[in-house]
Amino acid sequence: MPQRQAVAKELAEIFKAVGHADRIRMIEELRHGEKDVNSIAQTLQLPNPRVSQHLSLLRALRIVEERREGRRHIYHLIQPEIADWIVQGLAFVEGRMRALNAAAIDDARRLWTTPSDDTSPAETK
Amino acid sequence: MPQRQAVAKELAEIFKAVGHADRIRMIEELRHGEKDVNSIAQTLQLPNPRVSQHLSLLRALRIVEERREGRRHIYHLIQPEIADWIVQGLAFVEGRMRALNAAAIDDARRLWTTPSDDTSPAETK
DNA sequence: CTTATATTTTCGAACATTCGCATATGCGAG
DNA sequence: CTCGCATATGCGAATGTTCGAAAATATAAG
């Protein structure tokens, strides 16, 4: 029954998609609502085209969706639970990071799990 | 506060580690208990050295641990919950696969979540 | 010591991803 | 139509990953 293998392959695609620090941060950014490309690029301090490229990957994998409003392309998570799922992954990071910097994890967990945190007052226009 | 970025990077490492179909299948194999390299290689139909290589990656990331018994290297998941976590990832695969083969997912979920399923009566003792 | 078995390590080639930069597209304003 | 802004796309270079085959290590047995 090689179907399991097919599922494992698809699943691996998802994991790979989330296997990039910037993409994780982008998902984290979108956790509290939709944002346009420029806003994400600015908050994350990344060149604009790269953000766009990452987003198109996430879009291809049906992790985010695009909505256009004028000339802005506004993205949002299709399934916000994916962010919760990522937070759960923190459990496995814990052990490794503890050696280096224990507080970082707790900070991250707090930032990612509290509902009313907002790092984006950066409405650029 | 670049700590979040550091955590995202570590987290990405974990995701990348699990972002490979064979490694997912290996974790799945180890879900029901420890196994030696040869047994995994046989069940998964993979060349022996590759299994070893994947295992060393997973070991480096503290996902599996090794125990030696005679000439066998027996591996087991350090945190079995990681397997549960992977199963949760299936939720995000669902939509994509549905088009191709809906049953595959259900099968996979069943195989991965039932506690006493065993697809490998081929105990190579 | 020699042989057989189990696993790991090494190495180069094939392949995939990420990056930065330049250019293209889409859209609204004038 | 032309300009300027927001985003996307294309492309080559740098970098990272996976692969198969060969060689190295370790352990047990004779």
Characterise the protein shown here.
Two copies of one chain form a homodimer. Chain A has 125 residues and is mainly α. Helices cover 64% and strands 11% of the residues of chain A. Chain A contains five helices and three strands, in the order H-H-E-H-H-E-E-H. In chain A, strands 1-3-2 form a three-stranded antiparallel sheet. In chain A, strand 2 and strand 3 form a beta hairpin. In chain A, helix 3 packs across helix 4 (48-60). The longest helix of chain A has 33 residues, at 81-113. Residues 117-125 of chain A have low confidence and may be disordered. At the A-B interface, helix 1, helix 2 and helix 5 of A face helix 1, helix 2 and helix 5 of B. The structure holds a DNA duplex (30 and 30 nucleotides).
Helix and strand topology:
The structure is a homodimer of 125-residue chains.
Chain A (H helix, E strand, L loop, with lengths): L2 H16 L2 H10 L4 E2 H8 L3 H13 L3 E6 L2 E6 L3 H33 L12
Antiparallel strand pairs in A: 1-3, 2-3
Helix pairs in contact in A: 3-4
Chain A binds a DNA duplex (30 and 30 nucleotides) through helix 4.
